[in-house]
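Hi! If you just cloned this repository, the fastest way to understand the data is to look at a raw example. We've pasted two of them here, unedited. The first protein comes first, obviously.
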Amino acid sequence: MKTVLHSIAAASLALVTLTGAASASTVLYSDDFNRADNNTVGNGWSEVNRNRNDVKVRKGKLRLRDESAGSVDAAAATSVIDATGFEDLTVSFRWRSLRDNDIDDTLTLSYASAPTPALTDVRSWSHVFTGSNDGNGWSRGTISFGSDLDGAQFSLMFWTSVNGATEGFWIDDVVVSGSAIPAVPLPATLPLLGLALLGAGTALRRKAA
């Protein structure tokens, strides 16, 4: 009987250890724009701009600039990011304003579930960050989506609202991370009951022998 109780206790400890372990964060998407200068973003990004070189990769960074008569001045959206099986998503990125910016110029980060709406249809996107930086220094943004994008397929969009052709923002080091959704553990009493029955059966066989 002591052996049976010892086995049950060991199994209980193993179950608590297994279900209590924290899930490590996994990178689901990243882009550091470390590629040749180009008037398109590439790497699956879609874009909206007034002139063909307003949204581009330059010196290993994404640049959005110029004003437009539309709902967004310049915009770039990622390809669809698949977070199936992941929760607690976050996105981090670096950003800074162009040299001619003023305090009224803003950069916004939005997201939308697939199928992605038009980049100009900003009302169909959820906005999670808006920043205005009229200095020359880089800032870092880190946004937590809570449970909004758990297990979702979605895209991110960076877009600007500025007042002049030479105003806009730089963006770099976009990283989306999440934690694997843990498997639902068996009820704690189920494995204990199985072990108890196994132990009782072993004891009866020994007694019969």
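Ok, and the second one:
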Amino acid sequence: MRLIIFDLDETLFRTKAKVLVIKGQTVIKRLNNQEYNKHKLGSGE
């Protein structure tokens, strides 16, 4: 048996994916993966 695993966290590929931070029903921030890794959620986010 052979197992192959790929880690696709922008190590192999560059993407334009964004994480949306929503407060209520409004998008208040759009973060890339590096910004998301450092982001601390605020009140109500």
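That's it. A detail worth noticing about the second one: Residues 1-45 form one domain.
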